[in-house]
Input
Amino acid sequence: MSSGGNSSPVHLLRGGMVGLGMIFEETYRPFFEHARAQGFYDPRFGACHVHLAAVASRTGRRAERYLRERSQQLGRFQSFTEPDSVGQMLQQAPVDFVCVATPDDRHYEAACKVLQAGKHLLVEKPSVLSLQQLDHLTQLARQHGVLAKVVYHKLLDPDHKKLRTLVVQGELKHVNHGYCSLLEPKQISSQQFAEWIQGRNPGTYVAVHYIKLIDFTFPGRLKAVLCSGQRGLVGPPDGNTWDSTQLRLVYQYDDRREAAFDIHTSWVTPDNFPGYVEQEVQFRFDNGVWNGHSRKRGVELTIEGQTPLQKKITLNNHYNATFIEPWGEESQRGYGIEVLERFVREVAYVEFGGPDSQRQQRLEQMQSLDYNDLAADRQVVAAVQAMEAILEQAAAGHPDAVVYVDHPRGGLVLFRPGDPEPHVLYEPRVRP
Ligand SMILES: NC(=O)c1ccc[n+]([C@@H]2O[C@H](COP(=O)([O-])OP(=O)(O)OC[C@H]3O[C@@H](n4cnc5c(N)ncnc54)[C@H](O)[C@@H]3O)[C@@H](O)[C@H]2O)c1
Output
């Protein structure tokens, strides 16, 4: 939507939001508040205002609270609740793009509706849980001429950008193997996600950050997926809810050399652990080593009676933090918010970045950005689908399965020890 004089129109993008949970509070709320106050400018499309126009959630309780307590900053928005909160929102509210931040096994249904309604889509990670779902969403996005993107904020972390820059520039040569770990505090599994944790695992939810980092930074052919895990804290030791997982991905490169990556995740780390989320990466190359540690970025804070529970000892001020800027303004910013702004800028460029006759070219240009386009998420979703299938087999009494990617028997093929018959999880090729 555009308004204003012919020479310098002021554009408007109206956002819809599905899910008002933890991540809304942490990143989307500050994003929408900042966007409402300041808008965006880009020489290609001029000035653009962004409003949160509508939200869809299960009960609407948090929406009411935001309307009560933060309407000054967020503006007033329409609130839709279950049943069919998303369908109602799309029918009744004027939105141009929609962000989906529901629990990960509820992304697909909402995302389908958004794309079918011809709205641009931004979905939280992991985008979806199977390649079948991904195929359908990418096909809908093409059919309706809109963007379908996924949030991987770790790609915007300055440390990860530097790692990739060194790889792209050829300074770090040929990755050989790597190790990543992300450990969430117990309160995530016991309180924050207690409602939907049954039957879930921390790998899908958090390892996916590193799956994408690896897939994007060291692009090669995903060849095999293995996964083990532990149970007994969040659920029974023989149940299907996992405390921690260890995922292994094997990639092959054009020169036929391989690299293996281990990704360890958990959501049962003690709450009084000094770092909010323990994150560590190590990558070994032919000629180098990259070691990164979230708690060793340099800051250690102690405040009597507050750290490490209310406040964390080791802060990540790069991801998302509140500040008083040197010029006096109160702000909240970091790469967790910047990644949302990038998406909205991409939407604005498609809609307002030139004449209507060239919209398709602009759309294709933005769709070719493989850091966030759903069409470029194939190997990540393949790894997630394989991991979920391996854990499901283990919970059903068939541990140690392996999934091969683009195997002669199919795109994703699961083998169980002692069972000569493979299980085809996905028939077409994963890498076209
Ligand atoms: N980018 C990140 O680092 C990051 C961090 C945390 C969470 N996430 C992702 O964000 C998503 C949400 O996580 P969260 O931590 O905010 O979860 P949460 O449980 O705090 O919130 C989920 C929200 O979804 C709503 N909801 C549930 N089912 C719904 C439905 N069928 N229709 C409409 N609304 C529904 C709930 O009412 C709630 O508002 C997940 O996909 C998660 O992986 C990303």
User: Anything to note?
Assistant: The pocket of nicotinamide-adenine-dinucleotide is lined by residues 18-24, 56-58, 62, 82, 85, 101-104, 106, 124-125, 151, 153, 192-193, 205 (CB under 6 Å). The chain has a mean pLDDT of 94.
